[in-house]
Amino acid sequence: MSRNEDAFIVMLGAWLLGATALVSDFRARGAERRKLAEALSLDYYVEDRPAPGSDTYPALRLDMSTLCEGLEKRALPPAPGSGASSIAVIGISSGTSGMPQPAALTHECLFARYAIARVSPQWNVGGRFAVAAPLAFSATRKHVISRLLDGGTVIFLPLLVSPQEFADHVISLKADAVLAVPSIIRGLLPLVPPERTLFPQVHWLMSCGAPMLPQEKMMARDLLSSGFVQNYGSTMAGMVTLLETADIDRHSGSVGRPLPHVLVEIVDADGNQLPTGQTGNIRIRTPGAAEDMPLGQKMQARQSDLIVDGWIYPGDIGSLDDEGFLTVIGRSNDVIIRGGVNVFPSEVEELLAGHPAVAEAIVVGWPDPLMGEEIAAFVVLKGEATPEEITAWCRSRIQTDKQPRGVFVVAALPRNANGKIVRGDLVARLPIRGNSSQASSST
Known about the structure:
Blueprint: H1 4-16, H2 30-40, E1 45-47, E2 59-61, H3 64-67, E3 87-92, E4 102-106, H4 107-118, E5 128-131, H5 138-149, E6 153-156, H6 163-172, E7 177-180, H7 182-188, E8 204-207, H8 214-224, E9 228-234, E10 238-243, H9 248-251, E11 257-258, E12 263-267, E13 280-285, E14 291-292, E15 306-308, E16 311-313, E17 316-320, E18 326-331, E19 336-338, E20 341-343, H10 345-353, E21 358-368, E22 372-381, H11 387-395, E23 406-409, H12 423-429
Parallel strand pairs: 1-2, 5-6, 5-7, 7-8, 8-9, 22-23
Antiparallel strand pairs: 3-4, 4-14, 9-10, 10-11, 12-13, 13-17, 15-16, 17-18, 19-20, 21-22
Helix pairs in contact: 4-5, 6-7
């Protein structure tokens, strides 16, 4: 459905029938819907418009405006019978590092995630909660359900909205709690009026779904909302950590501490717990854990979000400090191995973001016959600079093994529906190593 409110109504309707819902991106092409329907044995898509493309897939067309005309408020139907599915939602991972993967979120799982959210620091019961991220996004579903269960009002903003429109809606509709992805937050920063915050009435502005640089978190708190917080989580685990407003100054490089009832450990490749401060694989144990889909309903072998002995391995690398703050360095399959040296993209990206002409930067591995991988940087500019100038600037500020061998200027970074960078799309744009143009400008 192309509107979040319609998708939410249909999801509730599926539950009242004892069925399982899968909320997908309404922009998905016909071929994508057909593939997903076949892989997960879906009965049909409930949609308000046909998908682009010529591929056929099972569909039920609904006109929600006509369907709801004259509908009177009435008692809910009886609870579904014993044959009802225990799986409330099939969650789909974002697919930033491979084929999106399905996970089974039971009704008990969703309620556990609500319980974890409402005992988290800075949670306020009730209020007016605004969100523009699609309901296909796991965090959107969780926060919408949690706010409604707490008696709050949910305001679904248009899905395809500019930062200016987003800000206008939040202010005019008097929202006091807001969920946004980092790409929206970055777009809001230039809109801040002189000597004031953009959302003085918002006491809870959460960023989730993708990393943010330390300076971006401080700017969001100082310029957008005094209640800015950051969440780290996954489709499989739900909310894992929260970086509270009061901790941003001292721990801006982290994603906060684990929430109540959530356990986080750092382990080596063999699953052995590592000492405080050491970097390794992140694993999570939580009552809000999803389950693997039944056999036969997996699209391919998982590369992340593995469940081993009750632990969820989201595929991220990080460390815990002596105060329990978690720092996420990157994804295990994003690590660049240059001549045997491990290079974490986040370290180079943070350096590039400090260049006065760089608005955003993403670093990826660049296949190289000699070194295995070299380092390529894609940057979006906010000022004047050439790739050669940016390369030279990095050369004086970071060791040789971590220096970009190519800087590519792009108009925008590719993102999926959840606002996450799709690194695979950037890798596909890279020229073959050995070509004369190893630092170029493109759009």
